[in-house]
Structure formats: structure tokens, C-alpha cells
Design goal:
The protein is built from 4 helices and 29 strands. The chain has helices at 126-136, 142-154, 161-168, 174-181; strands spanning 16-22, 34-37, 46-51, 60-65, 68-74, 81-85, 96-101, 104-109, 112-118, 192-199, 209-215, 219-223, 230-235, 240-248, 252-259, 263-268, 275-279, 284-290, 293-298, 302-307, 312-317, 322-330, 335-342, 346-351, 354-360, 365-373, 376-384, 389-394, 406-407. A 5-stranded antiparallel β-sheet has the order 22-23-24-25-29, with no helix packed on it. A 4-stranded antiparallel β-sheet has the order 1-28-27-26, with no helix packed on it. The protein has a 4-stranded antiparallel β-sheet with strand order 2-3-4-5, with no helix packed on it. Helix 1 (126-136) runs antiparallel to helix 2 and helix 2 (142-154) crosses helix 3.
């Protein structure tokens, strides 16, 4: 019978302190809608959550101080991402909260509405515009307009929301819908799919940052944090769903965009089109920048790592589907690990390709965030599938020693092969 090392990771390994568990917190969120930030500039980091509510109702921005709900703000539409950033040099250094929802970014300062940014409108198909102009002037029959719009849709033309709603209204409601909306200006807007922040000119923690947003129209926008104007606009071949940024916008930066087509693209300063780094055979579930590599989780139950030149470094097959991923950046210990939540109620911790810890949780984790919460630097906050809130703190004595870790690749692949020196005739001539 084979022996198991005591240092090898075990299910339920005791590296975390259980701080709090509320199974009826009624949270419905994901990792992109959760952040930890000192939003009151008092040294006490708060938990900020964009809660999707139940059945898309009661959508709220929730702020937790410790385990207590501190404040709530109601939203009219579903949020897609949340971020905190510094937009000025005022004292005290209080970060703002940005919430992306539809074509809008709602900015809060001191938990009060501060600014609302609307994405630039998209170009409207000329035939669609002429059709609605004809309806407005009563020069086009309703049946002819419907046929024209339906043909445009079947040809793959991107229509406005108004035209799509008209086609879905049903024949008995066509006339009423047209009479209600025909006089309003026709607009085509996109929706935000992902958002991140990028330092503008300084690399310090409380430096002014730009917002970087990805949209359904396959574009990236970099927004000025003070005037909320578009500083840069970049085009993608597919819809971005994950963003990772590094560097300074005014000096040199890199933006990584993971897209729905499984491609990961890189943007540098001065470029408007992304460079394809690598193409995955399965769709992305998560993407993290870890040191000089990119770690991605895929729907085919694999965790993979790539270099910035697009070379695959390793690939681990996991025992269950990936739900979400989070970076565990422990600066005091110099550790950058990847936390992976699985559908089998486990959270795996990886140092490079090595599995160094397995944590069993009460329910499947749908969102998690690691960082400073309150005054504790090493806190892991998780939202569970049933709506529960789980808070754990990393023990100061916890060791993530990969000498005994469970590696993703077989041992034979990590062994160096022996080669013959060959004869004098086989050696290359210098």
C-alpha cells in the first residue's frame, strides 16, 4: 500500500480560520461584481457587492463593514462589473466605486451618486434609419416596415433595441408599438461586458486610475478618470469577457482581453487592434495575470498557463467544472497563488502548476475575493450558490510548500531525459 505524505494537501486542510458563515445572506453575485476597498479612507476595508437580486429583482449595491450590512443602493438594471479607483487628488484619499450596467457606468463617491457615464452611441444601419423615418412621416406601411426590418435581421445586421422589440411584439401589438415609439430619436447602444482599472501616470497604491471597459460591440475603451472622456478606443475580433491590465497609461501599458471565442489578445500603448496571444479550444471561465504568465480556466475542466508570447507552459485537468477564479496575492510572503472554485464544493489553491491546498465549503462558491477586509490583510470572502456569505482568514502559520505538492503533469514529464554523447562523427562541426 502506498504511503501518503503528511505534508501533501488534504481535503479540509487546516490553513484557513473560519470567521463567519451566513447561509441566508441572500447574495446573488459573481467575482467581477465583488471587491474589497477602503472606501471611507479610515483604514478599515469594506466589502462592496453588486447584488443581482432574486430573479433579476431587487438589484442593489451592498456595502459590508465586517459582517454587518452597512448600506444599500438600488439599481434599475443588472450590473456586469464593479471596480474601485481614485479619480482625484483630494484629501482624504477616498476611492470611488464604479458599477457597470448596460451602456452606463454609475460612479459613487462616499456612497453617494457622483457621475453617470454613457457609452458612445453606435452607427445605425441606413436602411433601418430610413424605415423609421418613413414610419414617422407615415410614408411607409407598417407591414412593409416589418418586412424590411425582418430581412435586415436575417442578414445579420445589428439592429437597435427598438427594432428588435418591434419584431418580438407580436402582430396584434405592432400598430400600438409603432405609434408609441416612432417619434423618438433612434439610437443604437452597446452594453458593457467587463471592466478593470489602469494606473494613469504613477504606480503608487492610491494613484489616479483610468477605467478600462469592454463592450458587446467588440471594443475596448479607456476613460479619463477626471473628465470621463474616451482616452483610447481599441477594436477586437470578438466580445471581451475578462480583462487584465498592467503598467501606466501615460508611459507604457499592457491590456489583456479574454474573449468569448476563446482567444486572448494583448494591447500595448499606441495600438488600436489587439494581437492574438493564443487561441483556446474551449471557452474561458476565468483569466488571471500571475507574474510573467497568464493563467486561464476553461469550460473543459482544465486550468492552463501561457507565457506572454503565447506558449503554453502547463495544463492541469481538474476533477470538476470551474465556477470562478481569484488571485491570492500575499505580498508579505511574496506568494502569488490562484484560487479555483469548483462545482464539487471545493476551492483549490495552485502555486504555479502545483496543487497546494484543497478547501471544502458548504456550498458551491460563485464569487470570491482575497485581500484586506477590515484590518486583516489575508481575508478570503466568498459568496455561495445558495446565497450564503463565507469569510475565512489565512493562518499566519499556513505553509504552501510546493516541494510535496500535487503537480498537474505526471512525474515522468518533469524528469530530464538522458542522451548519448554520440560518436565523433555525430558531433556538429564548429
Amino acid at each position: 500500500m502506498s504511503e501518503t505524505r503528511s505534508d501533501a494537501p488534504k481535503v479540509g486542510s487546516n490553513k484557513w480560520i473560519d470567521v463567519f458563515y451566513d447561509p441566508v445572506a441572500s447574495l446573488n453575485t459573481f467575482s467581477q461584481c465583488m471587491t474589497l476597498s477602503d472606501i471611507n479612507a479610515d483604514g478599515d476595508a469594506k466589502l462592496v457587492i453588486a447584488d443581482l437580486g432574486k430573479d433579476s429583482a431587487n438589484v442593489k449595491l451592498k456595502v459590508y463593514k465586517g459582517t454587518s450590512l452597512m448600506s444599500e443602493n438600488t439599481f434599475l438594471d443588472l450590473p456586469t462589473s464593479i471596480a474601485t479607483f481614485y479619480l482625484d487628488l483630494n484629501e482624504p484619499r477616498t476611492p470611488a466605486i464604479a458599477v457597470a450596467s448596460g451602456p452606463f457606468i454609475y460612479v459613487y463617491k462616499n456612497l453617494r451618486p457622483y457621475f453617470k457615464f454613457t457609452l458612445p452611441s453606435l452607427d445605425i444601419n441606413q436602411t433601418e434609419q430610413d424605415t423609421w423615418n418613413g414610419l414617422k412621416e407615415n410614408g411607409v406601411k407598417h407591414s412593409a416596415a416589418l418586412e424590411t426590418l425582418d430581412n435586415l435581421k436575417s442578414q445579420g445586421v445589428a439592429l437597435t433595441v427598438r427594432s428588435l422589440k418591434l419584431l418580438d411584439a407580436g402582430r396584434q401589438n405592432y400598430d400600438e408599438f409603432i405609434l408609441t415609439h416612432k417619434d423618438a430619436p433612434l439610437k443604437r447602444q452597446t452594453a458593457i461586458t467587463c471592466m478593470d482599472t489602469l494606473k494613469k501616470s504613477m504606480a503608487v497604491e492610491d494613484a489616479i486610475s483610468c477605467l478600462v471597459i469592454g463592450t458587446e460591440s467588440r471594443e475596448l475603451y479607456v476613460l479619463d478618470p477626471e473628465a470621463f472622456t474616451v482616452l483610447a478606443q481599441m477594436k477586437l475580433p470578438a466580445v471581451p469577457v475578462f480583462l487584465e491590465t498592467s503598467g501606466l497609461f501615460d508611459v507604457e501599458f499592457t491590456i489583456l482581453a479574454g474573449c468569448r471565442n476563446g482567444g486572448v489578445y494583448a494591447f500595448k500603448r499606441g495600438t488600436t487592434a489587439g494581437k492574438l496571444l493564443f487561441q483556446l479550444t474551449s471557452q474561458l471561465v476565468g483569466m488571471l495575470r500571475v507574474g510573467k504568465s497568464i493563467v486561464v480556466g476553461c469550460m473543459d475542466e482544465t486550468l492552463q498557463s501561457y507565457s506572454f508570447k503565447g506558449k503554453r507552459l502547463w495544463c492541469n485537468r481538474l476533477p470538476s467544472s470551474i465556477i470562478t477564479m481569484e488571485m491570492m496575492d500575499h505580498q508579505a510572503r511574496g506568494i502569488q497563488a490562484v484560487l479555483v472554485s469548483l462545482s464539487n464544493n471545493e476551492v483549490h489553491t495552485y502555486l504555479d502548476k502545483n496543487l497546494v491546498d484543497v478547501m471544502t465549503v458548504e456550498n458551491t462558491v460563485t464569487a470570491m475575493k482575497f485581500g484586506k477586509f477590515g484590518r486583516e490583510d489575508s481575508t478570503l470572502v466568498m459568496a455561495a450558490k445558495g446565497g450564503g456569505l463565507i469569510i475565512k482568514v489565512l493562518k499566519r502559520t499556513a505553509q504552501f510548500d510546493n516541494r510535496f505538492a500535487s503537480a498537474g503533469a505526471p512525474t515522468a514529464q518533469n524528469q530530464r531525459r538522458a542522451y548519448h554523447k554520440g560518436t565523433e562523427k555525430d558531433r556538429p562541426v564548429r
